[in-house]
Amino acid sequence: MTHPHETPPLTADELRLLTVESRARALFLYHPTPLFELDPEGRFRHANLAAARFADLNEQEGKGVHFSRFIAPAHRERVERNFQRALGGKPSRCAAEVINLTGHHHRVEMDMLPIACERGMLGVYVLLHPRQEPVPRPPGDASAPHDMAATRLLEAIPLGTALLDLTRQDYPVLGCNQALCRLLDMPRDVIEGHQLPVLRERESLAVRQLHTALARRQPIRERLTLTRRGGQPLPIQLYLQPLEAADGDSEAVRQMLALHVPLHDTDSGSRAMERGLVL
Q: What is the mean pLDDT of residues 241-269?
C-alpha cells in the first residue's frame, strides 16, 4: 500500500519504455558526431546538435525533409540501398558524399542502425563520420581545389588572400590562406567553396565595382568595410589581381587573387604590390 503523495512503482512495461527513452535522450545529447533519426519513409525526425552544425540547419528546418536532399546524386542509390537494409533490421555502413544547405560537399562514412520494437520498425539512426580529405572534382574543372603550387603561393602571402574562380557567376573561393581565416574569424571550410564575404554586399558602390572588375577580368582596388564573424567592422582595402593565362589573353583568365589589407597595415599591401602580386 502506498501513501497518497508517494509515486506508485513503475510497471515492467513503463520501466522498459523509460529505459529506452533515457538511452535515446543520452545518445542525442552527448554523442559527439552528427546523428540523425529517420522515419521509415526516410524523412528526418530528429538530429543532435553536432548534426545541426554539420548540415547548417536547425531541427525544425530539417524535420520532414527526405535524406536524399542531402546526398550527392551519384550516391543516392547506394545510400537508399543501405537505408532499406537497416529498415530490414540489419545494421549497414556505406561511404557517400553529402551536401549541406550551404552547398558545401563532405565525404562521410555513415552507419545506419535499425530502431526496432515489438510492433515493428520505428525508423533508422544515421551516424555520420566525416572524412578530412577534400572532395575530388572532375579533371580540368576550374572549380577544382587549387594545386600545391597555388597553396604555397597563398600561404607565402602575409595578407589575407583568397583565390577566386572566375568561371562561375558567384566567383566562389577555390582556396584561401590562414591569414584570411584569422582576419575574417572564420574556419577555412566556411570560406572555401562559397562567395567571398565582402562580395555579398551588392548594395555598396565599391562592391558593385568589384563585381564589374571580376566580370571583365580586370585588376582593381577598393576601400570598404567588412564585417567579421563576430559582428566587428573592419575597414580594409581589397585588391583583385587576375592570374594571367599563358598567352596573356584576358578572356582566358579563369582565376583571380583577392588580397585583404587592413587599413592599419597598408605597408604590407605596398610590399605585396612591389613583388608584383597585386596591381
A: 69
